[in-house]
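hey can u check if this looks right to u? its 246 residues, i copy pasted from the old doc so theres a chance i mangled smth
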Amino acid sequence: MEDNIPINVSDIRSKHLHKEIVVKGLVYEMNMVQPKIQKAAFKCQQCGAIIYEDVLEEPEICSKCQKNAQFKFIEEKCKFIDHREVILVEIPSRFDNPSTKYSLKIELEDDNVDIVKVGDVIQVTGMLRTSTIPKKNRKAPEFIFSADTIHTIGQYGSYSNRVVYEDLLESNNDKIISQRDRIKILKDTIQELTDLSPEGKAKVEDVYERVSTSGIEKDDAESLVDRMRRSGDIILIDGQFLKRIE
């Protein structure tokens, strides 16, 4: 770490990427604690070996028998950790209300998931990175901060009494669709397309096209699919197909 001087959310720049820095701000929102796959387990259908992968993608070759085999996802053999996302915003002045004009997504894991609450003013040390590298017709990557150590340095007045729900309603194409409902639509769509496919898997682009008719834009669908993959609800096959995990 170059220095330990806390950085405001609005002052974060690309020069801080992949460096350990200290960021200060106000905890504006936080979602529910979710399980995150740390090691995904797959069983080789050829030799029966359990293969562990850092990402939720089927391996191409079995590291045990060295064969191009079929694999089965084994949820009970996976290694999980607790995971929570927190939105950090600029610390408002005495007479201002909190604003999301400048915000940063903070990822908390393991024991850190229960350290903070909405309304806390914190200093957090960790590594700054970006979201998935964008593809064609995809929005630009955003800053994401992986927290290591957290220090609560105060509370923002009565703001800590504000109730923040995980499923905040959002307007999309004149429809009100909660996050929970969007995830359900995605899961049902993946299952429907999987059932219709001779290969037993849903093509990613077909999923995005189908859910767009329900008011879920592609950028939003990609973000939710990434979240569902990390929580172990779905699996990505060959980078082109999705399959729901029962």
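The longest strand covers residues 143-155.
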